[in-house]
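Hello forum,

I keep getting stuck at the same step: I have a sequence, I want structure tokens, and every attempt I make locally crashes halfway through. Rather than fight my setup again tonight, could one of you with a working pipeline run this one for me? It's a single chain of 639 residues.
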Amino acid sequence: MRKENSDFNTKFISEAGSYLVNADYFAFVELKDYACYVIADGIDPDEKKESAKLAVTTVITEFSDAPGMSAGKLRHYLKAAHEALLRESDEIRLEASILILLTDYKKAMWGHAGNSRLCWIKNGEIKLSTKDTSLTQRMADQEEVALDQISAHEERNNLYTYLGQPGHFTPVISAKHKLEDGDIFILMTRGVWENVGNAEIIDAVDGVSKAEDVCTGLEDVILSQRLDIIENYTIASVFINKIYQNPKAGRNKKILRIVFAVCMALGMLTLSLTITKYSKNKSNLNKMLNYKKQGIEQLMNLNLENATKHVSEAYATSQNITATKKSKTGKQVEIVVLYNSMLEYMNTGEIALGETNFKKANTQFGHAVSKLNEMKDLGEDVSAFEKGVLAYQTFAENMQKGVKEADENDLDEAQKAFEQARDVMEEVDGIKYRDAAQVMVNACMAQKYVNTGKEYERQGDANARDYDIAKADYVTAKDYYDRAAALDKSSTAATYSEEVLIKIRNIESKIESMTDEQWLKKAETYIADGDKAAREGDKEAALAAYNKAIELYANVRDQATTNVAQLKANVNEKIGNLDSDPSQELLSAIDCLSREDYSSAIDALNRAKDLYNMRGDKASAQMIQGYINNVKGLASQQQ
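Reply #2:
Ran it on my machine without issues. Output:
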């Protein structure tokens, strides 16, 4: 019945600001022994699913079914909200920031993920504020960003823990805090704290006796700034006018004083024995954590040598620390052991990379990732270097795949694998391995150019008697060899280029020594090929052969004596005939006969006969010859 013997007053404001939809949500429930206050800010673009509302209602439901106030309970409520968003993330991943405040009307504790905040006011001053799970907050903790600049920093919404995130979910859980009459809790979303500083919060609670006055006061601060865009904002204030007082507290305190006195007497006997041990343990713990921190800083820069040096020191120090496995210190020792094991695997993997034993490297980095995941399961924040560790494994995996595909002569797949290895190291500034992968990419491309060059060189060899075609093939082959040599200096492409250059010069020498008669004879060969293709109905091949003949005529030195112009004209006529239709000539002959123009009719019939002959249709040509003879007879009668 604690609620009836305490006085907690809660009010809130939640508005959409400049937007049509309010992605924030707040709700609370006060039961007889426990109360729960939940605020959330949806950070996904799905307006239909209302991720913040789903998260808050899930927590309120879970709390109502099993109320309580402990770290385990808080984690359960947060995990339930997280899993609710994951279940609804079908087309779009639902994501939200959340903060839960729990109280038993005497003490309070809270848990959060993201950048919704809690502010605890005591005696008119800010006693405590939560820290966001954002990159900006981490930079502020490392003194890279000033505390008063957090609300305007560009990475303030770059979260590493939030509801609906992929992978391991690690919310922040506070300890229990004793409450006093007059305490005030303020819960707020990003739209509030980005525009309201600590000074405005203190002003808002100064001289105020009602929870709603704090909400309206902070809202006035936001609206008075006349911002171009006002984000969704939600403010909730909880006034603790009176905490619960246990009626048996006096009697319990007397009993406790007696027990305490006895315990103190017994404790003093062993204190002198344990204090030295504790002091040494504490010193070793601090020393271990300092070495670990230095190792992580080096690991973030992928400096495995220095990272291993510091973590090895941390591991050696951890062996001198006494702690139970389930204690906080024992957990920290276990994490250091995992760090040391992970780096041992990574160093073995890097040695294997140097030996180009990518299979072994891939296996070792896989073991390293397993140790990384074990650390995450223990709640260790590995986000600062996780991408780098995973990059090593992905690099080794793709290099192994690329070598295998190259050995099987699948150069396209090999190149793709090497490019993926290169790109993953580019993302983490792994310059040495990025460049090594690029060398392999170049080698694949160069080999593909060499292969193509060899194909053209083989074509040139096959066309060795057809000098101009052979030369074109050799020139193309040399171009591919030169491209390969430019990409990969270690390849034999430069030698291939020099060898094919000799073939080009030999061909050019032969071309130079050819006589006009030889050029004309070669052209006649192409014309014959064109006539054959035309008879077979292969217009494309015929056209190519006729055009090749015309090209060869250009090599004839004495154009006038050999009457090259007439020869070209004859070939062009054949090209024109490729598109001619003998039936049209027959229609023309009929028209001429109707006008008794026998001479023109004979010309049209001769053209039709030639077209049939060119097509190889001897029967039609003979039939047309019969028509010609008949028309000639008519013409002689006319005379």
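The radius of gyration is 44 Å. If your local run keeps crashing, start a new thread with the error log.
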